[in-house]
Amino acid sequence: MPRLADAPAWPYLISKRSLKVDEEFVGIGEASKMLGMSRTSLQKLVDSGSIQGVKTAGGHRRLTRAAVNAASQKTGPKALRESARLPAAAAGALDRPRALTILVVEDDAATAALVAGLLCDCAPGINLLLASDGLEAVLMLERNRPHILVTDLNMAPFDGFKLLQLVASRPEYQSVALVVMSGMDAPEIKRRGGLAPAVLFLPKPVDLQRLRGFVEAHVQLHAASAQRALMRQIA
After folding, report:
1. Tens digits of per-residue pLDDT, 144-170?
2. Are strands 101-105 and 127-131 parallel, antiparallel or unpaired?
3. Contact predicate 72/224, CB 8 Å
């Protein structure tokens, strides 16, 4: 099964075809006017990851309108201008935010492809990992420390129940958001140990809009957390 891994942090590369420019994205020129700063300063902030942006295959920068508005409201144009004036050595010393990482564990190729397509569409900057069973997922957990784990339950030889038990038993995974996709009915799930209250359960066929909403909420939380961390480094 193909694996989408090691996607770059901001700015990430996408095709022009996937940009909804009129509604969701603005160019550097318009964004610089919105923030009251020069195009050069804004480009520095996008390149450093201070503001979430994208770069088309032709090399043009685009910023999400939501990211520009959030930066203006939460940080303020003055602080952003100061960030852009950081010396190159200081800017290089900053810790770049890690891209939101999602691990999808699913042994059905069609379902895995459907979920992967949805995730790449609603959050194109993520680091997406695909595993076909729980054992492969354990190796990926150790190497990548995902922010979100989306897993099936009925897999062999290492099923989703064992995977969730392992995650629950390890302190380093306590912050991982958990999503279960399964065609298993409630009585059978309960008989096999049940699911923790914090786990989002999505019966198959999966409600893709509900999954989209869950992921989009975590994308926003992750972006806000990364912005706060960057501001702490600058202060």
Report:
1. 999 999 999 999 889 999 999 999 999
2. parallel
3. no
